[in-house]
Known about the structure:
Elements: E1 2-6, E2 26-29, H1 31-39, E3 43-45, H2 53-60, H3 71-81
Antiparallel strand pairs: 1-2, 1-3
Amino acid sequence: MGKVTMLVSVGAGALDVDESYEAGKEYDLDDEKADEFIVKGYASGTLSRPYDESEKAGLLGQIQAINFGGEIDVLRNQLAQEGGGS
């Protein structure tokens, strides 16, 4: 299991998830889902294994993001200052 802190909210039905994950909250996810969220920038945490650039590119090719006035960057900066960023 991988522990992540969500940087953005991910709703049920998005990214093939069955439940919603709320920005700013911590979750224990299976390693594959945790790694996907970390690589895509949806969450901070520690990857379960090293990913080469082609693997990261494969995951990033499936990304969808909406940014309203830099709120994502503000939360990332706040988490990094608190030591929660990766």
